[in-house]
Specification:
alpha/beta; 143 residues; five-stranded parallel beta sheet
Length: 143
């Protein structure tokens, strides 16, 4: 069971949401981010994330481009409300110029191609969290 927004807002660490249909990717990212003291919630689909998401403080989304049923970018272009203000790091194992250009148009915080090095990912998360005004008092991951 995922923590509710009011529970997450009491936590001093950033909350990172991971949406990827690959269990191994989710597990390894979760392990890495938790080792840096971050709170992590992971989901196997965009629909699962959308149905569970409750806005909190100091959070960002790591979103895979190639998901069952919808691409990451199609998901981003279809959401509104609180999700529209969530910084997003888009990752893909099969990127191309069209995906990168569309990601730029949708104002994603970072576009990363797998495999992603730990340092590159942590820098992207730090930059994404820096976009959030509510992250000012929460610790951000070290570089």
């Amino acid at each position: 069971m995922q923590p509710k927004a009011e529970e997450r807002s009491k936590v001093q660490s950033p909350t990172i949401f991971i949406v990827d249909d690959d269990d191994a990717v989710r597990d390894s990212l979760k392990l890495l981010l938790e080792s840096y003291g971050m709170t992590v919630e992971d989901y196997g689909s965009a629909a699962e994330f959308k149905n569970s998401y409750r806005p909190g403080v100091c959070e960002c989304l790591i979103l895979d481009q190639h998901l069952p049923g919808v691409t990451g970018l199609d998901f981003l272009s279809s959401v509104g409300g609180p999700l529209a203000h969530l910084p997003v790091i888009l990752m893909t194992g099969r990127g191309d110029r069209a995906i990168r250009d569309r990601a730029t148009q949708l104002d994603v915080s970072a576009y990363l191609e797998k495999p992603i090095g730990d340092g590159i990912l942590m820098t992207a998360i730090r930059r994404a969290l820096d976009q959030r005004q509510d992250c000012d008092q929460a610790p951000t991951p070290p570089l």
